[in-house]
Amino acid sequence: METSELLKKVRQIEIKTRGLSRNIFAGQYHSAFKGRGMAFSEVREYQYGDDIRDIDWNVTARYNKPFIKVFEEERELTVMLLVDVSASQDFGTRNSLKRDMVTEIAATLAFSAIQNNDKIGVIFFSDKIEKFIPPKKGKKHILYIIRELINFQADSAKTDVGMALKYLTNVIKKRCTTFMISDFVDVQDYNNALTIANRKHDIVALQVYDNLETQLPDVGLMKVMDAETGTERWVDTSSRRVRQVYQDWWKKQQENMQTSFNRSKVDSVSVRTDEDYVKALMALFKKRS
């Protein structure tokens, strides 16, 4: 993309997403994610009604009566975006490519974080870590992130969600809120990595998909290619059985994904490329508030 075209695109996304984060998401973002980061403050004697999970057993043993740990809300959060840049993101049939919607969602969340005085960082991933942008504050940092979201070209076409989650767990030492934005089409099992990551951090899953991915159209013999492997094959979409097999696969894939989120206690939302992602984010924020 030419520099002038890139800057124009950056400006367009900045205007749209900054307005959304300021006018629509400001209060919802704060109530949904503030207070999730807690720092130890002091200990005090246990009082009736206190959560027994906060008991400091070392101090309790020393004084022979129960004491609890007191926490206070951290004044700022660290927000990480885990952005899927595999080849499957370059697909879309209606209003936009999946990649375009991922970019807008990520930019909106980035502006929401900055307006709440939080740091924001990004991990671009395929089946490897493509780029790591450490969390920082400031408009200059946000615009750099948006430029990378628009213009980034991955080295690999494949996807490995589990690998990205393991990297997050290792590289970010302090607890953070992480938005993982992907289509979550991954042949590898990421359940364990997701569970471990969500114990250390606050993981939120945002699935972006296209309506055509949910079912095959009846258009006769069609040549299809797997964007991540490059494998090509002819498919007879006029066959009802073929269309049903594909639809069953998609349904099973969605069920497995949701099961993973539920088991790992990860909040999630799914949005199609022909839908309004604003409504999806609002629903997510409301659920967490």
**Average residue-wise pLDDT:** 87
Q: What is the tally of helical segments?
A: 9
Care to count the β-strands? 10
Shape: globular
Q: Measured on Cα atoms, how large is the radius of gyration? A: 22 Å
Q: Walk across the major sheet and give the strand order.
A: 5-4-3-6-7-10
What proportion of the residues form beta strands (DSSP E)? 15-25%
Distance between the termini: 40 Å
> How is the main sheet built?
6 strands, mixed
Helical content stands at 40-55%
Element string (H = helix, E = strand):
HHEHEEHEEHHEHEEEHEH
Enumerate the spans where pLDDT stays under 50 for 5 or more consecutive residues: none
Structural class of the helix and strand makeup?
alpha/beta
Would you mind describing this structure in some detail?
The chain is α/β, with parallel strands linked by helices and 289 residues long. 43% of the residues lie in helices and 23% in strands. The protein contains nine helices and ten strands. The strands form three sheets. The chain has a six-stranded mixed β-sheet with strand order 5-4-3-6-7-10, sandwiched between helices. A two-stranded antiparallel ribbon has the order 1-2. Strand 4 and strand 5 (129-136) form a beta hairpin. The radius of gyration is 22 Å and the shape is globular. The two termini are 40 Å apart. The mean pLDDT is 87.
Write the layout of secondary structure elements.
Elements: H1 3-23, H2 26-33, E1 38-45, H3 57-63, E2 67-73, E3 78-84, H4 98-115, E4 119-125, E5 129-136, H5 139-151, H6 161-171, E6 177-182, H7 191-200, E7 202-209, E8 221-225, E9 232-236, H8 240-263, E10 267-272, H9 277-288
Domain DUF58: 42-255
Protein name: DUF58 domain-containing protein
